[in-house]
């Protein structure tokens, strides 16, 4: 009886030891798994995010829209880095790994290249009954992505209403209308967006009021492909009220 009881006790003791060892191994494995999971969830620790820092100065002070586009581009291309734009110093600061800094530098080198500047020369050729009677040329400096406007002519006052004045009676409300030539141009690569407006005062008077002027106006508004050094005819128009005819052409020349 004692031997059997001793054997039974030893077996029970061994079972308890094995159970305890198994529980310890399970708890250890769970701890390692939790640690691994926590590490996977937080790969960007302080050493990864803040170990490297560099400031890049942009070539030209960009507009607010352009600065936002640059930041958005960098944040999409280098998502793990922290990116700050300082408008007063025209600089972008980047914090991240060494690979992040290198990639940000490469992206900025491509998107922050100086924008090209071109000289656009518009030529307006006048003909009367098929015979050339005159040529006018106008040159504009246009930076890619920007708009340039040229105006030549006069401003004509137009009375639009009357305002009451307690002390001096009525006062005329006047606005001014541009009369003459107006050219707008913008470049995006080889794409030219342009608008040419020619206006003049007509001889006839309106039926409403003899003081109100009548304007003649011709508008040419288009988008075209413009290759440097190659003249492009934008259009030809008949001048209203006359036998004259005008042809409008443009040619571009890279300045820088």
What does this structure look like?
This protein has 256 residues and is an alpha+beta fold. It has two domains: 47-111, Ribosomal Protein S8, Chain: A, domain 1, CATH 3.30.1370; 117-254, no CATH class. The protein is built from four helices and eleven strands; from the N terminus they run ααβαββαββββββββ. Strands 5-4-11-10 form a four-stranded antiparallel sheet, with no helix packed on it. The protein has a four-stranded antiparallel sheet with strand order 6-7-8-9, with no helix packed on it. The protein is elongated. It starts with a helix and ends with a strand. Residues 34-48 have low confidence and may be disordered.
Write the layout of secondary structure elements.
Blueprint lengths: L1 H40 L4 H5 L1 E6 L6 H14 L4 E5 L4 E6 L1 H14 L5 E12 L2 E13 L3 E19 L3 E20 L2 E11 L13 E11 L6 E7 L5 E11 L2
Antiparallel strand pairs: 1-3, 2-3, 4-5, 4-11, 6-7, 7-8, 8-9, 10-11
Q: Characteristics of this structure?
A:
2 domains; 256 residues; alpha+beta; 29% helix; 4-stranded antiparallel beta sheet; Ribosomal Protein S8, Chain: A, domain 1
């Amino acid at each position: 009886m004692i031997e059997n009881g001793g054997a039974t006790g030893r077996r029970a003791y061994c079972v308890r030891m094995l159970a305890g060892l198994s529980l310890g191994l399970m708890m250890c494995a769970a701890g390692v798994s939790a640690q691994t999971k926590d590490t996977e969830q937080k790969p960007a620790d302080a050493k990864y995010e803040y170990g490297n820092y560099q400031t890049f100065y942009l070539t030209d002070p960009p507009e607010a829209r352009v600065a936002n586009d640059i930041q958005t581009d960098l944040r999409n291309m280098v998502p793990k880095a922290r990116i700050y734009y300082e408008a007063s110093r025209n600089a972008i600061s980047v914090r991240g790994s060494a690979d992040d800094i290198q990639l940000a530098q490469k992206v900025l080198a491509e998107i922050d290249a100086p924008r090209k500047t071109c000289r656009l020369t518009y030529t307006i050729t006048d003909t009367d009954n098929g015979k050339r009677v005159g040529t006018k040329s106008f040159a504009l400096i246009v930076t890619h992505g920007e708009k340039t406007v040229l105006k030549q002519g006069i401003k004509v006052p137009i009375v639009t209403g009357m305002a009451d004045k307690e002390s001096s009676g009525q006062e005329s409300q006047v606005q001014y209308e541009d009369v003459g030539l107006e050219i707008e141009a913008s470049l995006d690569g080889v794409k030219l967006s342009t608008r040419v407006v020619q206006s003049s005062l007509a001889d006839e008077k309106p039926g409403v009021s003899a003081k109100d002027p009548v304007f003649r106006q011709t508008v040419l508004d288009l988008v075209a492909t413009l290759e440097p050094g190659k003249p492009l005819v934008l259009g030809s128009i008949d001048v209203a009220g006359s036998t004259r005819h005008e042809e409008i052409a443009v040619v571009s020349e890279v300045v820088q």
